[in-house]
Amino acid sequence: MPAIVLIGAQWGDEGKGKVTDLLGERVDYVVRYSGGNNAGHTVITPDGQKYALHLMPSGALSPSAMIIIGNGVVVDPKVLLQEIDGLAERGVDVSRLRISGDAHLIMPHHRALDRVVERYLGSSRIGTTGRGIGPAYGDKVARMGIRLQDLLDPGILRKKLELALREKNQLLFKVYNRKAIDVDETVEEYLRYAERLRPYIAETRVMLWDALDRGETVLLEGAQATMLDMDHGTYPFVTSSNPTAGGACVGAGIPPTAINKVIAVSKAYTTRVGSGPFPTELFDDNGQHLRKVGHEYGTTTGRERRCGWFDAVVARYACRLNGVTDLVITKLDVLTGMAKVPICVGYEINGERFDDMPMTQTDFHHATPIYEELDGWWEDISKARTEDELPENARRYIARIEELCGTRVSVVGVGPGREENVTRHPLLP
């Protein structure tokens, strides 16, 4: 079987790590193709162990799959090494990791600028994690970036860093009144990282091409989600890369003809972290209930997630944009005990109904949700493993999501554990 893309259908935090882990034992490669350590996947293994992964692909917990960090990722080497060491201490084999030499590095000036610019923006801030991801992608596009392969050539590393800091230190010191970054200290620090990372750096494109030629299964794992895509999300309140299915080809270096399945993950409700428009956001007891019962706090930042009802306009947009073949709906169990479970089926904007995403950010920001209320259920669904074991109202809720999105719902999550799922259609043959 060729390549499979796994993406988020909302604003992230949908449970993609759980799905990757679910498929991990049945695929040969798991590839992270976008983002940096501003993302996080939480995986709970059958024995109850909890892993919070940030840069490492979720396939790291698979016993046999090769794990790849693709060229589309920006890598903070200190964070990556901490994650490698943490997994190794818990008995996870990290020798299967390979990192594209073309992946860009997050440098100290990226982190410094990310934090100071966010503070400078005040109430207009984007809501970044302050980890340097945006500035690193900015330098990549400006052709001033430093890549993993540059760690292997100390002369090139120093030359590129000196060039970058000519501008960045001027900004930090003269504009933002912050301490300049020292070239010598940074080179010394990053050469230490180079010694440890050297065995992992590889030409990952050729590895993936060869795997596809052998008929092996490659799972391309996105970070963040569709509505945070640089081009197709709620710009400017987005991430700095393309976590959509199209970005998988660019971020991993494989042809689009290799992809034959796109799996999108969506919560049974909606959450978002950071600033930006969110039509179905709840500010009442229902929102607090979803946050408390769903444990809606960021894996990477610990920030409270904004919570709202399921938005079928957003989900349908994600399905069409990504060419989704299978939907996975997670956290259905969080809705248990609610008398009514509304679904947003459209927006009202200036007296006009929209069944699809409005063209402008202004319209989206002022969109009022049009809700369709479904009856809730009170039964504990955490032990359900077949659709027949779900309460009738829960089945109706899933069927309505499927109808509104125009894409089949293949798996329904009924708890956080790897096995706590109802499979309606197998994700893999």
TrEMBL record:
Q: Which residues are Mg(2+)-binding?
A: 13, 40
Enzyme Commission number(s): 6.3.4.4
Keyword annotations: Cytoplasm, GTP-binding, Ligase, Magnesium, Metal-binding, Nucleotide-binding, Purine biosynthesis
Q: Which residues bind IMP?
A: 13-16, 38-41, 129, 143, 224, 239, 303
Q: Which residues make up the binding site for substrate?
A: 299-305
Please cite one Gene Ontology biological process associated with this protein.
IMP metabolic process
Entry binding sites for GTP:
12-18, 40-42, 305, 331-333, 413-415
Q: Which pathway does the record list?
A: Purine metabolism; AMP biosynthesis via de novo pathway; AMP from IMP: step 1/2
Q: What does this protein do?
A: Plays an important role in the de novo pathway of purine nucleotide biosynthesis. Catalyzes the first committed step in the biosynthesis of AMP from IMP.
Q: What is its quaternary makeup? A: Homodimer.
NCBIfam families named in the record: PRK01117.1 (NF002223), purA (TIGR00184)
Its recorded name reads: Adenylosuccinate synthetase
Species of origin reads Micromonospora auratinigra
Q: According to the entry, what is the taxonomic lineage of the organism?
A: Bacteria, Bacillati, Actinomycetota, Actinomycetes, Micromonosporales
